[in-house]
Specification:
Layout: E1 8-11, E2 16-19, E3 28-32, H1 43-63, E4 68-72, H2 79-95, H3 100-121, H4 147-156, E5 160-163, E6 166-169, H5 185-191, E7 206-211, E8 226-228, H6 230-242, E9 246-252, H7 256-271, E10 277-283, E11 286-288, E12 291-292, H8 303-308, H9 319-327, E13 335-336, H10 339-350, H11 365-372, H12 377-393, H13 398-408, H14 419-437, H15 441-453, E14 456-462, E15 469-475
Parallel strand pairs: 3-4, 3-9, 9-10, 11-13
Antiparallel strand pairs: 1-2, 5-6, 6-7, 7-8, 11-12, 14-15
The structure holds adenosine monophosphate and zinc ion.
Adenosine monophosphate binds at residues 33, 35-36, 44-45, 47-48, 251-252, 254-255, 283, 285-286, 292-294.
Amino acid sequence: MAEKPVLTLYNTLTRSKEPFAPIDPDNVRMYVCGPTVYDFAHIGNARPVIVFDVLFRLLRHVYGEDHVTYARNITDVDDKINARALRDFGKEIEDGRLSLNEAIRRVTEKTANQFHADIAALGAMQPTHEPRATEFVQPRGDGKVDMITLIERLIERGHAYQAGGEVLFDTQSMADYGQLSKRNLDEQQAGARVAVDAHKRNPGDFVLWKLSSPEEPGWESPWGRGRPGWHIECSAMSAAYLGETFDIHGGGLDLIFPHHENEIAQSRCAHGTPVMSNVWMHNGFLQVEGRKMSKSEGNFFTISELLHEEKFGGRKWPGEVLRLAMLMTHYREPIDFSVKRLEEAERLLAKWPAGGNPAEGRVDESVRAPLLDDLNTVAAVQALHALAQCANADPLMLPVFAASAELLGVLPKKAEVSKALEDSIETLIQLRLEMLKAKNFAEADKIRDDLAEKGIQLKDGKDPGTGERVTTWEVRR
Ligand code: AMP
Ligand code: ZN
C-alpha cells in the first residue's frame, strides 16, 4: 500500500502543531459539536460546519472514503428550545391543542430541517452519524451508551454528587481538571462570585442532571424526573458512535471552556481513560466590526438571510460564495465578515471552469500540500486559482482542477441556462458582432463584459469553412 501523506494539525490540548496519527487508520474518528436547534443558524455557526467539512473531505482523501467516521450531534434538548416552544405555540398549549412536548418537537424538527437545507447550500457533506440528544438521555437497549448511565457511573466512581435538586460533577475529584483550557481550580475559585450556587461543593462544579418542574420537559431517572445538563450529551453521543477514546474533537473557540473542558472531565472520569480525544481543534470567530457574531449580541445574519433574502449588502449570495469566502481565511484566525470579502470570493469563482469531472483527475499536490499543513485553506485556494487558470487554457487540466476543487468542496457546477436566457445571449452576440463590424469597440466590449459578469463567457473564433468571425459562448459557473 502506498505511504500515506503526513497530516499536521494544531492541537488545542498541547497548543502546538503535531503530526496526526489516528488510533486506527482503518477507522479515523471525529466528533464535532453541532447546533442547538431553536432558531435559524447564523453565518458564525456555518464556520465550524465548513471548516470540519473540509477536514472530513481531507481525511477521506488520505485514509479512504470508508475509513473515516464523522459524528456531529443535534442538540434538541435545551431551555432555550423550551422557551421558544412556549413563545411560538403558547396559545395552542394553553388551549390544550398541543402538549409542550409536541410543541418542542415542532420547533426542533423545523429548525433541524432548516439547518440541513442551509448547510447543503454551503456544500457540506452529511456526517456519517447525526445523533439527537433526546435519543440518548435514557438507556437505549442497543449497546450504545446514554447520558443517565454515564451519570450513574460518575456517581459510583465518586466524581458526582446530588445536591439542591441537581446532580453535579465534582471538579475537585479530578486531579488534572482544566488541562484543555489551562485553567486551574484555584483560579476558578478566585474568579467565582461568592454566595452563588451554595449547594455546590466547588464553584466550578457543573450540572449533569437537573430536576424538572411538572410543566418542564423531563425524563424519568434514578434522581427523579428531570433533564440533562448540556455537556453530558456530547460525552454520551461521542462514546456511542466513536468509542471511549477517539481521534479528533472539534468546535468553535467559545466551546473550549466550559463545554469541552467538561466533556473531557465527564468522559475520562466515567470511562477511567487518560484521554477523551487525542486532538482538539477549534475554529476562530466570525466577527462583525471586530465583535463575535452571536445571537445574544444581536449582530447576526442567518445563513438563510444570506442565501435567500436581500439583506446582506442588499442582495442574495450563493452558498458557494459564502463557503469560499470562509475558506479564504485560515480556520484559526478571526474573520471580519463583509460584503467586500464575499465579492472577492465571487470574483474568483466566476473565473473557475465548470464541467470538469473530479473522478477523472487527481488532486494536485499544490492544493493538497497546504491542506495537509493544518488545513491551510488560504494557500490551497490560491493554488486552486492557479490551477483554474491552467484548466482554462488547457482543457486536459480540467479534471485535475475538478478533483482539487472537490477536495475543498468548491467545485463549480455547470449552471442550467433557460431557453429565454439562451435566446437573449444569442441576440447580444449578434449585436456585438454588428458593433465590431462598425468598429464600435467600446460597446462591443461592454456587451462581452456584462455577459462575463453573469458567468457567460464569449469565445471568438473563425468559422473554418467560411473564414467568417463566429462567437460561441459557455457558462463559466
Ligand atoms: P452554538 O449553537 O452557539 O452552540 O454554536 C454552534 C457552533 O458554532 C459551535 O461550534 C460554536 O463554537 C460555533 N460558533 C458560534 N458562533 C460563532 C462565530 N461567531 N464564529 C465562529 N463559530 C461560531
Ligand atoms: Zn459538544
